[in-house]
UniProtKB/TrEMBL annotation:
Biological processes, Gene Ontology terms: protein transport
Name recorded for this polypeptide: OPT family small oligopeptide transporter
Stretches for region Disordered: 1-50
Keyword Phosphoprotein: no
Name of encoding gene: 20351620
Segments forming a coiled coil: none
Compositionally biased intervals (Basic and acidic residues): 1-18, 25-46
Pfam families, A to Z: OPT
Family: Belongs to the oligopeptide OPT transporter family.
Superkingdom of the source species: Eukaryota
Keyword entries, A-Z: Membrane, Peptide transport, Protein transport, Transmembrane, Transmembrane helix, Transport
Location relative to the cell: Membrane
GO molecular function: oligopeptide transmembrane transporter activity
């Protein structure tokens, strides 16, 4: 990854060292160290998926097409005013891109209407209308919206505790525990920034559609040439015009699978032909079957596990292979997420939980009632493959990526803590991606980490809080390395669940919050780290970004707790199969099943622990084949063991149709069409979110379409699926 910028930086360091006398030995030693670190940086180029993005990718993402202007106002009053609605129910259902899109006309209107009233403070003018609305302000609005989404997992845990176990801990506990997970996640992202966000090789594909969309909004001209000067296409349509065409088309289409013809979303046409045939429905059904063939015309079904347009093609191929092997070949059984009794009846959890004894699992009641059973697919994906993924992650990183990752580590600012130069001085950082701006001091993040730890200790047992956050700390960097190159999140949920199950045997509530601190804080840390990378791409001052993240974290946490309490008290039959408009809490129910199994039952599924051994051995086998049997195979070098084992952890509540259609769409656009790919992703995301909210609150919520029914609204319901 050595670039001319690196060389310029290194030469400037040498010039500074050359001033003065008696420092020749120090200068030579430091120069040798810089050369060594530059060599380490070059080693990271051997990573296919971790190498710096090509010029064409940067062009498609709208990165580097505009010279940075440090004088642009970005931390303005209007970003806060225009973002307030993003934290209010029901707008939390809007996507981040939709918030970014809706903020643009509102802010332009502010620019034209609001007077330029302000004041000077320490030489800086603060105004209600500081000038034209710019792209940096729009990015800040996106980041604030992104933080409101980062609280969803905490909402799942709160719902699990309140609804499924019946414990109301109060607003104080709910707010502090939510801020604890958010704060520790933000601290992890900041502390390890130099390892996961600063290196150019870690692309963070998830932000590319946002940079492309931001460029489309604030640069209406067509881009006929890439940053290399090569003509990209004779098609001279601007990104903004393309976005508006795609947005309008997708907005109109959304009405068909979600209102006019819902069967298009559940396109199990073979089941329609034989609605009462159990075997047909188990193979071709979407909800309770294998989802063959994976066809759907509903964009929200395709993007249920994330956008396929920002994931590299090699990563999609790994996930597609995983789907075929683990879902279609190994366990051809009925998917599902409900826990059952011996003969298939629904399991009544209240029969085995003793609420008078701190919500403990009662073994006597369990033996008298019934053993707990879950579907094979649920057990395999949620437990077995998750175990295998965790053990494979470290073995795979050591065998495949050890040398280039060590190069990145030594060249980072954290490398100064471990590797010393020849004269005993700490190594210098050779490249700062935001050298124009003052960095946010690392000690700010350390303070945030200890404050978050304090909140966790205040809410929970001190040893449980420390232990769970330590697990989050250990796994954070490896998980970030995978996410930064593939846009796929590896789940450590089950490790937290099973650890809590053994340490706090029978304590289902302890299992919930050990998972909350150990897993949720790390997942939220990935969201904060992604925003740090977005800040680098869009030249956002790091200290202002830190402030915005803190404000968004506080406001988003408070609002999310309020939304959870409102929803649980006001939506009839919420989190049940009788809930109207789909409010059946699929993620909360999945987490509840897991907490019951590992917090209570546990021993019935201990045989799945052998998947840890499988996960440790599989990377060794793949590494051996790459090195000795198939050293010249281009495709086999793309095999990514943690992805092969880990992406299906989201089944359930996701289905084979969700993964299959996701992979097909991702391969089509990722392999054959790139220029407008990221803009298209934002257009689809915005249109689905805005159309969904509009249809729900104007038609479904008001009851205007309660009696709307025809063959296209009922055919997929009248099957065994």
């Amino acid at each position: 990854m050595a670039t001319s910028a690196d060389d310029d930086k290194a030469s400037s360091v040498k010039e500074k060292e050359g001033s003065g006398s008696g420092q020749s030995e120090s200068r030579e030693s430091k120069s040798d160290w810089e050369d060594a670190v530059l060599q380490e940086r070059r080693k990271s180029d051997s990573l296919d998926e971790s190498s710096a993005p090509s010029a064409d990718i940067l062009f498609a993402a709208g990165i580097g097409l505009k010279e940075d202007d440090p004088t642009l106002p970005c931390l303005t009053i209007r970003i806060g005013v225009n973002t307030l609605y993003t934290f209010r129910f029901p707008s939390i259902t809007l996507s981040q891109s939709a918030i970014q899109f809706l903020a643009y006309p509102l802010s332009k209107g502010w620019e034209m209407v609001v007077p330029d009233w302000g004041f000077n403070f320490r030489g800086t003018r603060h105004s209600l209308n500081p000038g034209p609305f710019n792209y940096k302000e729009n990015i800040f609005i996106y980041i604030l919206a992104n933080l409101s989404f980062a609280t969803r997992l905490s909402a799942d845990a709160l719902t699990e505790q309140r609804h499924f176990y019946g414990l109301k801990a109060g607003w104080g506990f709910e707010l502090l525990i939510t801020l604890c997970t958010l704060g520790f996640g933000m601290a992890l992202a900041g502390i390890f920034r130099s390892l996961i966000a600063d290196p150019a090789g870690f692309v963070w594909p998830g932000v590319l559609s946002n940079t492309a969309f931001n460029h489309a909004l604030h640069s209406r001209k067509s881009d006929k040439e890439s940053v290399t000067g090569q003509v990209m296409s004779k098609w001279s349509m601007s990104r903004y015009r393309f976005f508006m065409i795609a947005f309008c088309a997708s907005f109109c289409w959304y009405w068909f699978p979600h209102l006019i013809f819902p069967a298009l979303g559940y396109f199990t046409f073979i089941c329609w032909i034989a609605p009462n045939n159990m075997v047909i429905n188990q193979v071709f059904g979407m909800k309770s079957g294998m989802g063959l063939p994976p066809i759907t015309f509903d964009g929200s079904q395709i993007t249920y596990i994330g956008s396929p347009l920002v994931v590299p093609a090699w990563a999609i191929l790994n996930i597609l292979a995983s789907l075929v092997f683990w879902i279609y070949i190994v366990p051809p059984s009925v998917p599902g997420q409900r826990h059952l009794r011996q003969h298939g009846q629904a399991y009544n959890v209240s029969r085995v939980i003793d609420k008078k004894l701190d919500f403990s699992f009662n073994h006597t009641k369990y033996e008298q009632y019934s053993p707990l059973y879950v579907p094979v697919t649920y057990t395999l994906n949620t437990f077995g493959l998750c175990f295998a993924t965790l053990s494979s992650l470290f073995v795979w990183l050591y065998l495949e990526k050890c040398e280039p990752i060590m190069g990145v580590a030594k060249a980072s600012s954290l490398g100064r803590l471990w590797w010393k130069s020849g004269n005993g001085e700490a190594a210098v950082t050779l490249r700062n991606p935001q050298s124009r701006y003052s960095a946010a001091p690392t000690w700010w993040y350390w303070v945030l980490a200890f404050v978050s730890l304090g909140m966790g200790i205040f809410c929970l047992r001190w040893h449980g809080a420390i232990f769970s956050l330590f697990i989050s700390l250990v796994f954070f960097v490896p998980l970030a390395w995978v996410y930064a190159t593939t846009n796929i999140k590896i789940k450590t949920e089950i490790l937290c669940r099973i650890t809590a199950g053994y340490v706090y045997e029978g304590k289902v509530l302890a299992n919930i919050w050990f998972f909350g601190l150990g897993f949720i804080s790390g997942i939220k840390g990935l969201a904060f780290a992604q925003d740090l990378k977005l800040g680098i791409y869009c030249n956002i001052p790091p200290r202002k970004l830190f402030l915005v993240q803190c404000v968004g974290m506080a406001v988003g946490g408070v609002t999310q707790v309020g939304v959870v309490n409102w929803a649980l008290e006001n939506i009839p039959n919420i989190c049940t199969n009788k809930a109207a408009n789909g409010f059946n809490c699929p993620f909360s129910r999945t987490h509840f099943n897991t907490s019951l199994i590992w917090g209570g039952v546990g021993l019935l599924y201990n045989g799945l622990l052998y998947f840890f051994l499988l996960g440790a051995l599989l990377p060794v086998a793949v590494w051996g084949l790459k090195r000795f049997a198939l050293p010249r195979s281009r495709w086999f070098t793309k095999v990514h063991v943690p992805l092969f084992l880990g992406d299906l952890n989201f089944i359930p509540p996701a289905t084979g149709t969700n993964h299959g259609s996701w992979a097909i769409v991702g391969l089509i656009f990722g392999l054959y069409w790139q220029r407008y790919n990221f803009v298209l992703d934002s257009a689809l995301d915005c249109s689905l979110a805005i159309a969904g909210v509009f249809i729900f609150f104007t038609l479904f919520y008001t009851g205007a379409v309660d009696k709307f029914s025809w063959w296209g609204t009922e055919v997929y319901k009248n099957t065994c699926d």
